[in-house]
Amino acid sequence: MTNGSAYVSMKDITKIFGTVTANDRMSLDVLNGEIHALLGENGAGKGTLMNMLSGIYIPDSGHIFIDGKEVQLSSPREAINAGVGMIHQHFKLVDVLTALENILLGYKTGILLRKREREAEIRKIMDRFQLDVDLNKYVYDMSVGEKQTLEILKTLYRGAKVLILDEPTAVLTPQETVRLFKIMRRMKEQDCAVIFISHKMNEVMEIADRVTVLRKGRTIDTLNKQETDPQELTELMVGRPVDLSINRTARVFDNKVLFVKGLRALNEEGVEVLKGLTFDLGAGEILGVAGIAGSGQKELCEALAGLYRIKEGEITFKGENLVGKNPQEFINRKISMSFIPEDRLGMGLVASMDMVDNILLKQYHYSQGLFVKRKPAASKAKEIIKKLDVQTPGVNHPIKNLSGGNIQKVLLGRELDSHPELLITAYPVRGLDINTCHKIYDILNEEKQKGVAILYIAEDLDSLIGLCDRIMVISNGEITGIVDARLAEKKQLGAMMLGKKEEEYAV
Amino acid sequence: MQFRIVKKPEISQKQYIMILLTAIVLALITSGLFILILGLNPFYVYSAMIKGAFGSTYRLEQTVVKAIPLIIVSLGIAIAFKMKFWNIGAEGQIVVGALFASYIALNYGEAPRALLLVAMLGAGFLGGSLWGLIPAFFKARWGTNEVIVTLMMNYIALKWVTYLQYGPWKDSASMGFPKIANFTQNAILPKLLGVHIGWVIALILTAFVFIFMNYSKKGFEIAVLGESSNTARYAGINISRTILFSMLLSGGIAGLAGMIQASAVSNTLSVEISGGVGYTAIITAWLAALKPPWIIVVSVLFAAMVQGSSFVQTAFGISAASALVIQALILFFVLGSDFFTKYKIAFSSELLAHGKETKK
Amino acid sequence: MNTVLVIAFLKAAVIAGTPLLFATLGEIMTERAGNLNLGVEGMMLMGAVMGFQVGYSTSNPLLALIAAALAGGAGALIFAFLTVSLRSNQVVSGLALTIFGTGFAGFVGQGLVGLKLSEKFSAGFLKIKLPLLGDIPALGEIFFNHDILVYIGYLTAIILGLYLYNTRNGLNLRAVGENPAAADAASVRVTRYKYLHILLGGALCGIGGAYLSLVYVPVWQENITAGRGWIAVALVIFSSWNPYKAVFGAFLFGGLDIIGFRLQGTGIVISQYIFAMIPYLVTIIILVVVSFKKDRKNAPPKSLGEPYFREER
Question: Domain tally for chain B?
Fold first, then answer.
């Protein structure tokens, strides 16, 4: 496995963004016919390093060798010509084009498209790697799994011998992950070098041959999988011993506060996105929501928060009907609800404004008169900085310049400040490092102890199973089951995410 | 040589002003070259422009008279632009404001002066805001592209006044010449310190808009909506109402400028009443970064440029259009300079040197 | 109204619509690359004045058109540099270009007022009846008995349509406008595509302007475009970024543009100034109607108005 020299070799790569050193003299060797995992927390520099290998960023200094030759990869075009292709976490596909058109994009084939001839070539690759893609389907009609397969096909069609997969399983169900791993093994058999970026320990242990651990912009070590274990890898990744278990606190309340019955909603194009959801939520309970991305989580949150038009159904919160009310009426009626949206800077906060004005956003409604009062907001901002340990140069610093974790703390701090009785959180730990994740879990548990009803939407099944009291699985706008988190199994949740009803699975 | 673009850390106020000044100097050098091509000495032309704008009390007054509508309209535009509502329709809002005010002036010309003028101001505001509310309504209701609608409204306003000027409102005393009758003395704004009282109105409005944008709840809502409509919705801001309100204000303020121009400058209504102020004010508002105090500074400079170039026109025979060219050049350079406040360019030779350094 | 008059009206609508057609096609190309250039009016004016200047001094139609295209392209180059390379706000950059173009045209055109183009020059734009097509009853007269620029207009629309939907480069262009990051990742040279299509778009706007000053009017007058550039921007939305639909839109608006004058002789007593409002009113109505329903097929290019920067972080 380790014979011969490396197919890809990155040496002393440094990359600086503004004042942040994303990569500090990093090195990496990858062989062909191996699956090489790149393990590190958010901000460790995995993405930056790989973006340089795929020609998106240009290193400030350092050298890249492919197949023994030094290369300058100053664009994705040069990278693909050198045989390097990257599958990004956010797929680089054009929605309004078909699969075939996306594959042909940017490909040199004379003036005309000649779709027929190209299709034959593409089918050959599909056979060789056992990929299944409907070439005439529009990307906007595809599921996440299909899009990913298309990305892989696109990259292979361009002759990639080195494939970089950036956190490919983050958006997949367990079943889709199994399929992806099959494809990855097939690529390995075909002598490709596969680089697998991840921070999920179990997946790394399952699929990788070797693992390189990165931390805070530096390469820590490269290990053979057989010679290591998850505990060691985690400690290398975080830099100190950590407790990975998530704490589930006991429930102390048992009254129900939120009832949702037969909730239906249509999107802008008239397609039904919520198909009659019925569930309830108790005080001091954390109800997890699991599902494939785009199964209706966003719409459910927004419907509850009064931001999405509801076609029919009931939402009753502490005896009050919420259907047909907008956030303004929530405020006027003093409905005690907080919503941490998925899109923190695009919905929860104003990126270009400072902390004071962002806190003001939730306060100014309540003050008297025509003018805003910034003083109380400023003192609130200082409180939040202290309480949640927000790293910021000051309360008047635009929040877009803060790191993801600190932005989330500002948002969470502001929302918890109003002492809500219902807290809706959409992907609250997405993109945050392990420490901040656990800090957020602790905060949620604290709120739970106070009797807050919490709806917790997440993509990571481990955190759902570890943190929640119950888990509700939705698939394609429908609830496929609500299970007790203490008894939940990943495999079962995965099947339910794909649309299998809880009862069917039991049979 | 290869180069690439790198993000800069936050820059200081001082650096920001340096970059801005550099841009303006470069713009003046470029326009200087342009003047040179015409076979004239740019230094003579520029100094003549300065002389033409500030050289005597009369010229200074003329510059102020030209700055007044620019300041007022820029203030109105700034409110809409802050919300990222691209109101290109100030020109039409000025015209309709003037039209409404003229209706009062022409029909109730003998009313007591103070009452008449206040009524005209009210009518001007009403006309401008009405013209601003129409595109705002379409935008709020159906998301209709406001750039084109506000612009089309300009042409409709102008054709309307043309129609009145050539038709129903034609002055029967003008012996067939298509013009609207002059206002009575009562309908003309008084002077203060040699210039009509519009400058006082402009200063009051500047203070008002400054306070409104920075300290009022509505101003805050407009700023939030301008950054992200999703956040605005999330925060319980009524988007439609905010759009309508800000355009009511934006158009109304432009309408006030229309009233002032009709009353104090031309003493009547005509198609030339706005004379492109609605467009120039877009530049001044943008150059002033939508900040009211800066709007005064930029507007006075632009008015000086217009006043100066009309002087230069007679002195050197350069078309008055040259002022437009120079204004646009300044805008180009300042627009471009914004880039250098956020990014810097790194050249590859520098990178290689850096690479060697780290290797050691 | 009798048929002869109707045919004459429709024919005149085609002529009046031709400058709009060029400008609309130019703006479609620009917007397909993801850039909203509101400087159409300015580029048309630049093309109109330079076309007239060169046409007057050389009496060579081809040179005049080349000058017009270059002038429009030069305006577009300023815009492209600002918005693509320097990532300035596209709306304001476009407005600045319109102001610049207006000033530039006023400036250059100062000496051109009252001048007449030579007979020799105008001979280049005589009507040519196309064989076969020109003999079709009614349609032949309306569409195929025109000067050469009208035919070039048709051809440009068809070529642009084929280019967008049937060629590799057209596919790449659509991808650049929809999702430049995806196009970039697929090794399409995004910056080059943007520059090229903004420049070509500007050149078409320049030709559209020149049609006014060289053929339609054909003398130089201040502000010869009279808002047609803005109508072209609206027509792009009306035609949902489709070159074929743009032909229809342009001729429709050509008709609206002249309807006031045409109806004057027919005994209808409405002021011509009221009729002059019609194209602008109809533009607003169409924009409002278009905004009623939103579907994927007629949506604008998704990245329209957004700068693209690969190393953003």
Answer: 1
